[in-house]
Amino acid sequence: MLKNVLIVSLILFCSVFASILAFDDLTAQNIDSKQKILALVNSERAAAGLPPFEINPVLDRIADIRSKELLESFSHIRPDGRSFESIFYDFNTRYSSCGENIAKGYRSAEDVMAGWMNSPGHRKNILNPKFKYIGVGEISDNSNCFHWVQVFSGDISGDISGFKNEILSLVNSERKKAGISPLIMDPALYRFAGQRSAEIVRCYSHNRPDGRSFSSIFKDNDIRYFLYGENIAKGQVDPKAVMRDWMNSPGHRKNILNPEFKYIGIGVIPDNSNCLHWVQLFAGERFS
């Protein structure tokens, strides 16, 4: 079974490392800082004999969102408790490898780059030959403390948004064969399955990274169901492969064909090795 290897780094300076930018409120200064960071990064890569990064529009938007999140929680863990790479899932984007540098307290692009290059972990991301693309975010908080973020990735390989709908179709095809009513994609379960898929990248288990059962996600959100279940998997390359494996496993098959389940949520996310992690959450009726 594959384990996620995630390249992440953070530094302390003044307060610490981080960054933010609201993508729909870019200023000329923000754009200038992005271009300066890109030029400085590519200068370091050229000196190391590495090809330059390209600014990728998806990564740039991701960096803007991540920098905004870092104002709430200065960490590679997002405010909702998911790891930073889950934002690729939110954009339905797969990648061959990814990394993130965050910083705060630096007043200029030159200063923050000097800080990153003097930190082994950050430097490793900047000079990683597997990375091809970069996104940059920068913003100041209410104290005029500047926050910075770099998001890196290797090859970006397509849209996985269709995978969830395909799994729903495959599930309901199996239920139809068994004479069972179809499952309905439930918005809350959909969101929880997305969160759980990011959690199983960190801890491949029906127990969550904090040690609690997967079902605690319902309590965390003040939602209760009469009946619930979870299927997880990793390593399968597409919906047909993961559904085949689930249907060949008695326990997973039992969940899929349980006539008492009425709702489903589906999550899929790649880890840093581009290994897909899959989640199905099932539930019966809610009760108040």
Brief overview:
This protein is of the alpha/beta class and 288 residues long. It has helices spanning 28-47, 57-72, 86-90, 109-117, 120-126, 161-177, 187-202, 216-220, 239-247, 250-256, and strands spanning 7-10, 54-55, 93-95, 98-104, 133-140, 146-153, 156-159, 184-185, 228-234, 263-270, 276-283.
Topology:
Elements: E1 7-10, H1 28-47, E2 54-55, H2 57-72, H3 86-90, E3 93-95, E4 98-104, H4 109-117, H5 120-126, E5 133-140, E6 146-153, E7 156-159, H6 161-177, E8 184-185, H7 187-202, H8 216-220, E9 228-234, H9 239-247, H10 250-256, E10 263-270, E11 276-283
Parallel strand pairs: 1-4, 2-5, 8-10
Antiparallel strand pairs: 3-7, 4-6, 5-6, 9-11, 10-11
Can you describe this structure?
With 288 residues, this protein is α/β, with parallel strands linked by helices. 39% of the residues lie in helices and 21% in strands. The chain is built from ten helices and eleven strands. A five-stranded mixed β-sheet has the order 1-4-6-5-2, sandwiched between helices. The radius of gyration is 21 Å and the shape is elongated. It starts with 6 loop residues before the first strand and ends in a 5-residue tail after the last strand.
